[in-house]
Fold each of these.
Amino acid sequence: MTTYKLLLLPGDGIGTEIMAEVKTVIDWFGKRGVASFESEQDLAGGAAYDAHGKAISEATMKLAQESDAVIFGAVGGPKWDSVPYDVRPEAALLRLRKDLELFANLRPAICYPALADASSLKRELVEGLDILIVRELTGGVYFGSPKEIVTLENGQKRAVDTQLYTTSEIERIARVAFDLAKTRSSRVASAEKRNVMKSGVLWNQVVTKVGKEEYPDVALEHVLADNCAMQLVRRPKQYDVIVCDNLFGDILSDVAAMLTGSLGMLPSAALGAPDAVTGRRKSMYEPVHGSAPDIAGKGISNPIAMIASFAMALRYSFGLVEEADLLDRAISSVLSKGLRTGDIYTEGTQKVGTKEMGAAILKELDLLSA
Ligand code: NAD
Ligand code: IPM
Ligand code: MN
């Protein structure tokens, strides 16, 4: 039986609450006997800053490099609003993504049947929704240099962020999107702003070329990113796979989250390139949401995005597709039985806390696998 090394980084705020729940799910799959999981837990974000003065320590980075997958909660919060920029909690996440070269971020927005009324959109617009946002994660304005605030001679300040993409960075994320589209409905929408950004022009050209030369059977559509945001709330089911840069992907995935009922529902997988020899890829799994300071410590956060992120780990890092399907089914089934955390609560359903939701998913796993 294969043993996988997991590094658990709960982070801050609700990160610790949702990690406690996914841990019980990891243990459940460990006991099932299809693979074994060796988990180590460490600090990241504000918690690491408080302990070491850095958002992530070198020792933790080493553990991340050596792990088969990092399971990440969430970082940040008002407590660290005034810490120096380079050591702010969010820097932990960015360093993990960059150093592990996790360039491909898969953010599926699936509206579970039971949640069609929890969305802010009308039921008929979101029922059956299944979109996959493929976000480029290690380039663009997040990492381009220069990135600075300089004081000018006249005393004014000037802030600079640099949006930067190379051909190969766009090619590799485009291939990920096209490959995934082939396993779905063979449609890709590429979102950029070629009307105002040079990086948008290049993005458009490169995605078009990769599509034409390597994926002639996949239908490719180009959409301006602002229009894409509008279309997502107008008629979201027109999309299957959406590929976009780092910043647009961040924003579009939060928009897509609300189509499914809540930001607390959206999982994600951040993947590197497969190793040339072993075929294994570095990976990190994290919910799309943040540390939710407004509800942290109350025991009411939704653990589903975190637990569904582990389902993505089963699928994409460990090749345990049946187990991944089982976990997804358990989540869907608990929702069908009417259990809801506050963020997805609608009249007539049963409101539960983080722990109850985690426990219900475990119980459902027992039932479905009996
Ligand atoms: P957020 O995602 O933390 O919260 C936005 C809203 O969604 C809040 O009202 C929150 O209560 C709600 N929400 C989010 N997740 C939820 C869940 N699981 N269950 C129920 N409700 C949930 O975004 P924010 O408030 O803009 O950011 C707070 C902090 O989190 C910031 O420091 C930000 O930088 C950080 N952040 C971290 C990550 C990450 O670690 N991956 C992602 C996004 C934001
Ligand atoms: C996300 C978050 C991060 C991002 C922040 C916390 C750095 O918003 O994962 O969506 O902007 O990528
Ligand atoms: Mn975000």
Amino acid sequence: MKPKVYITRKLPSEAVEKIKQSCEVRMWDKEDVPVPRDVLEKEITEVDGLYCLLTESLDEELLNKANNLKVISNMAVGYNNIDVEAATNKGIIVSNTPDVLTETTADITFALLMATARRLVEASDYLREGKWKTWSPMQLTGQDIFGATIGIIGLGRIGKAMARRANGFGMNVLYYNRSQKNETEKELGITYTDKETLLKESDYVVVLTPYSPETHNLISGPELEMMKKSAILINTSRGGIVNEKALYKALKENEIYAAGLDVFEEEPISLNHPLLTLPNLVATPHIGSASRKTRLKMADMAADHLLQALNKEKPDHIVNPKVFSEAL
Ligand code: GLV
Ligand code: GLV
């Protein structure tokens, strides 16, 4: 009997076809609407494999309904949407899609940094709204990137890719990470600091750490207060890492210069959210990994992981390797 698989969103057809070759597939076939909780609750009871996105919250309550589930393949590098401990206790393999999206996500992180520093969105609106009457000396002036200090919080794959870009722009690079990385420091010519020093000395503070209880509200009122008045905050990681109320206040009262966000505490962010009233915020709808090529690769990679696990092979990227040796 073929294993049963549920896919929680309409995927690129190549990935679906690949899974269909050896599995019985059911799929939530809408592209722009996440699967409703009650549908997922029903589907998860029977299946052997689940292919999901970061929009699905796979908490313990839901996992307790999964009687046959062997693998959750998440089409994302972040997996804070999954209760990994509960999955591990139930012997369910969890896989994610790192590496393929590293450079693409570093690109958008740098793009947000540049757009925010040089007020690109505001300037574009200014032109389109007919406000451009003449060239004038201080019109739409922003912040320099060349020669500035960037502080990277979280020196993982994306953090390193960001450091390389910053080097290319002649920036001075600081980083803060749970562990100091001596080799990388030498290789990239970057400097380790504590969080407080990084916040005080950086012109750009860039958040690239995974979301966990330890990083929840890592940037809140006190941290924003430590930052320079001219500093810019960029977050392309997960919304919960930055406290949005505190950020709103800091931006509104010009305690910091600007922010660029690709991620939010609640996604999609409500159009009534106070942050969206601010001119010194550049906001994008969680598109960090959204190049065509990378998203196709992520979809394919997550399909491979699912099939590997159902085949009793170890997926190329596994979040909870412990379970593999114990479960299969
Ligand atoms: C996107 O945010 C991801 O985690 O892949
Ligand atoms: C994510 O892949 C990271 O390690 O930065």
